[in-house]
Amino acid sequence: MPNIQFLGSSSTEILPGKPVLLGCPLDLTATFRSGSDLAPEAIRIASDSIETYSPLLDMDLLDVEFIDAGDADVSGSSVGKALDSIEKTAAELLRKGARLVTLGGEHTITLPLIKALERIHPDIVLLHADAHTDLRDQYEGSSLNHATVIKRITEIIGPRRLIQMGIRSGTREEFSWMRENGTLMKWDSSSSRELYRRIDGRPLYFTLDLDVLDPACLHATGNPEPGGWFYQDMERLFELLLETRMVAADVVELNPKLDPSQMGAITASKIVRELLLIVGQNR
């Protein structure tokens, strides 16, 4: 467990229904630029540069009892063993009533987290914001990696409980699959009602790959893709998520090696603050 704690982490024990921040510093399947294993610590350090108060949500971390539980142990593991360790750690926290906000690491961490959560919330909906589809059946000879993670998750929850936004990169086959299964949704100022309808009051898991943001807004990620969201698009989504039953979230794919100004880590920290506040609501 790192000594550095996320801003405002005041609780010393897991409280039922309250947020728990968990780091998952996994970076074993990167295929372009590795370094996401450094992100949990970088995000915690950068959180010292922001305020506990969110003007957007009119909420303050000082009013939310949450604990920073440190990092899951994924050191020296194969991909399969690391994912099993994350699932076991998440399941133990969930049994104590935690509402998880998880820091990646690579996007593959979402698979074991969904496995743990689906046992408690069998009707859970996954909202996937990303530049990439992550729907390949295999990638570079492996079925467990950052490019296959959402496909593996659909084998657990099915495509009807998957909503994908911000996607602008993938294979022809992946885009055909999204169209056939109706998972892809455009996000703009007119989309809120449709997103509410598709969530339909069910418990929600939000997985955020930071490369959904345009490189002009956040470039410190392994696979940046032009044409993405800007921070105001993210804020509009946060306002909507405030009205949902969001029970967990993760933020993945920050690469501190590509972040000399630390603006990527600061942006990620602000996002994590908003997610802690949303998940920490008593809804």
Top keywords for this entry?
283 residues; EC 3.5.3.11; Arginase, Chain A; 7-stranded parallel β-sheet; alpha/beta; Ureohydrolase; manganese; two-stranded antiparallel sheet; metal ion binding; globular
Q: Can you give a write-up of this model?
A:
The longest helix is centred in the N-terminal third of the chain and has 17 residues, at 79-95. The strands form 2 sheets. The protein has a 7-stranded parallel β-sheet with strand order 4-1-5-9-8-6-7, sandwiched between helices. Helix content is 32%, strand content 15%. It is globular, with a radius of gyration of 17 Å. It contains 8 helices and 9 strands. Helix 4 links the parallel strand 6 and strand 7. It has a single domain (19-279), classed as 3-Layer(aba) Sandwich (Arginase, Chain A), CATH 3.40.800. It has helices spanning 39-46, 79-95, 110-120, 149-157, 172-181, 192-199, 231-241, 263-279; strands at 19-24, 53-54, 59-60, 67-71, 99-104, 125-129, 162-165, 204-209, 246-252. The two termini are 30 Å apart. It is an alpha/beta fold and 283 residues long. Its EC number is 3.5.3.11. One of its GO terms (molecular function) is agmatinase activity. This is Agmatinase. One of its GO terms (biological process) is putrescine biosynthetic process from arginine, via agmatine. Mn(2+) binds at residues 107, 130, 132, 134, 209, 211.
Topology of this protein?
Blueprint: E1 19-24, H1 39-46, E2 53-54, E3 59-60, E4 67-71, H2 79-95, E5 99-104, H3 110-120, E6 125-129, H4 149-157, E7 162-165, H5 172-181, H6 192-199, E8 204-209, H7 231-241, E9 246-252, H8 263-279
Parallel strand pairs: 1-4, 1-5, 5-9, 6-7, 6-8, 8-9
Antiparallel strand pairs: 2-3
